[in-house]
Input
Amino acid sequence: MQYLISVITDSTELADPAEMVTIDAFNDRLVADGHWVFAGGLASPGTATVIDHRGEAPVITDGPFVETKEHMAGFWIITASDLDVALALATDGSKACNRKVEVRPFLGD
Amino acid sequence: MTQVGNAVSEAITRAHHEQWARVVASLTRRFGDLDVAEEAAADAFATAIARWPIDGVPPNPGGWLTTTAHRKAIDRIRREQHRDAKQKGALVLHDDDSTPMHAVDDDRLRLIFTCCHPALAMESRVALTLRMVAGLTVPEIARGFLVQEATMGQRISRAKGKIKAARIPYRVPDATDLPPRVSGVLAVLFLVFNEGYLASGSDTEPVRSELTSEAIRLTRLARDLLPDDGEVAGLLALMLLTDARRAARVSDSGELVTLADQDRDRWDATLIAEGHRLVRERLQSGVAPGRYQILAAINAVHTSARHVAHTDWSQVVALYDQLVQLDPSPIIVLNRAVAIAELDGPQVALATVDRLAEPLTGYHAYHATRAELLRRLGREADARAAYDRAIELAGNTAEIAYLTRRRDELR
Output
């Protein structure tokens, strides 16, 4: 079962060097324990571009699709046997990146 | 109804109390799906209601219900598979009915932990526990918490949907996670009890014994399943010692009767004896008590006094001191102040209570406590204002009646 762990923040500050060290250590552990699928940090919401091609011509808009106080600054995709395992990893992930995280399951098959 | 009919309907009620959680729990383990388990269990009980009056009560009602429910579940899944061929193969049947009894008990424990999972909202945990473990119907739960049936139905299906989609495990947490998870379960049970004991609705009975009895029944089950957990024993004792005073708690005219004014002859001696036994057992264990055990001990002191004048207030205050160490929340400090008033007088108590103004300004009991203290100090105008505020904030009809009379007694 795969879960998305989103990193939630209300600031555009990037991870500082100390946070980078703990994040790297957490990533290494995810890989070593077989939970790692993918992870990445995102540039600020202001760099986003929205495309809507549901109609005839595509419409391109500058900026995030919805303005919110908090945004997703990065994410992990992990594999875990159940939510308890995912929550335990997310708890450590939140500590490692020093930010709030949200755990959301991918749709099952 | 005939005597035979009565005996059958009693057997069905008893089977429902004793077997519902077992049946749901064993189906959940076997089919890995709460929806299937719930519906098949309900089908099996409906079949019992139709068949038992004709065929007689089977010698082993639990076995009959489990077998019937398993068959109903398989029928239901087959029907759905016929409807949707894509679902074929989704079902993994383990045809293994040789489960020993203790494993079945573990299943019920798994069911409780799943229903009370911290990833679910508190109101969902309460609803799901009452449906899946206690076997209350959706309309019964909706009535219990004064919400529309449709709303309660959605709340329960949303919770089941999350359990399935997020794969909340059907498992007893391991030793390191167990204490916080048990306290999460106890919080659910205590909430059900409290809503029964001091019902918040303006058009419900002031004491809802259907909720208090369910809470006690579920806590007894938790105690059977977790016999070594002191807090489970503590919560059970607390509920028993509180519920023992139920008959004396509301007057014939529908007013709440305070502990001091209750007719102690109307207290339930059997429940008190059981509660005291549990409290003594915990004291003898020598393990440091948690908050429910301390609250139970406080209630044991109260229920040991044949008359309010015999209450050992210094013991009550000492127990509250211990509780404040564990949980320095303003509500605990407020309750401690009530005992302080008896030991050191209303002036000392009021000084403590006044310091709680900020966190408790929206809590009716804060204003009610202040009102009583101000009254004892002869500050009638201040007392009246405090009663007014308490009445405004209180939800329980019997409590409003009591507070209104107290206010109107003031000059």
